[in-house]
Amino acid sequence: MPHAAQHADTAPTELDAALRGGPFHVALRAAIAARGLPLQRVQHHLSRRGVKVGVTSLSYWQQGARRPQRPESLRAVRALEEILQLPEESLIRLLVEPEESPSGAHHTTRSYRALVAASGVLERLLAELGHTPSDSGLHTLGHHERVRVGADRALAGRESQHIVRAHRDGVDRFLAVHHGDPGCVPARMTVRALENCRTGRVRTHHDTGVLVAELLFDTRLRAGDTHLFRYAVEDGTAGVSREYVRGFGGAGGQYALQVRFDPAALPARCHRFTQYSAAAPRGGLRELELSGPHHSVHLVESRVRSGVLGIGWDWE
After folding, report:
1. pLDDT per residue over 98-116, tens digit each?
2. How far apart are CA 67 and CA 240, in angstroms?
């Protein structure tokens, strides 16, 4: 039938365009239509993967009435990419940009790094290096980060200093995670061990910009031992940077973040923010004033809690 043939010829083009430009609900609707699956079957495939999402929620997602926000919903989006035979991260990345709801209100924009964590990529890379998320054997007493933004407004790199205490015998390494900005090339990044550690295995994931590096200590810590080490990640592989985010899985010690800007590219405004989780709206907004000769802003938390901390900035 001519009409059916026309639909078959145009559907892939429509789907490709939707995946490239979004918005999310249009891409999801096009992908489900291209596969010819009723929502009940989609829900069945999700449940077989251990992800529980109702048919009503799926319907709202593809209509644009609601967006996936909770961690379980974001896991469902990652599973939908497999079920609908889509490129990895093709749907997840469309949740980065804000969409307008039918009422005219805008949803909160979440960082790409936060969505990457929800997609399962990070967990897979950590597992390749033998990491057990529930017990690294280390408790963080202090973590100080210094982030550099270059004259091209890109994230040039960062330096981290950790003070940790072992809570079991035999710990001899730490796994450092770096999330590049959208468009970055992890294979071109460099990890440098600066003090009391050396670089071991490094794993990267190109599509999501994640790099995981193994930092080896020169000693095996005993329970109660402390260790101080520093390392750096040279980036500079992405486009314009607008924020730096750090997530925490549980309570810890002091955290300090400093962002320093090149004198040739100073932001118009800077602010700090917090989130209870990657899917939660941002709160704790407070403007930060750029310091004089060093062109930097910073935040300090005396004792971090589970959630997300970050500094964002606007260019004009």
Report:
1. 333 333 333 333 455 555 5
2. 26
Q: Which residues of the chain does CATH 2.60.40 include?
A: 121-314
In sequence order, what are the residues at sequence separation of 6 or more whose Cβ sits closer than 8 angstroms to the Cβ of residue 256?
143, 144, 145, 298, 299, 300, 301
C-alpha angle 115-117-121 in degrees, rounded to nearest 5: 110
The 3-state DSSP class for residue 235 equals coil
* Number of other CB atoms surrounding residue 44 within 10 Å: 13
Give me the sheet containing 190-195, strands edge to edge: 190-195, 226-234, 155-166, 138-149, 254-261, 296-301
Cα–Cα distance measured from residue 195 to residue 25, given in angstroms and rounded to the nearest whole number = 48
Q: Tell me yes or no: is domain 121-314 CATH 2.60.40.
A: yes
Residue 217 pLDDT grade (very low, low, confident, very high; cuts 50, 70, 90) = very high
Does pLDDT of 77 surpass 60?
Answer: yes
Flag whether the pTM goes above 0.90: no
Enter the tokens of residue 257. 């973040």
Give bridge partners of residue 270 from the DSSP assignment. Answer: 288, 313
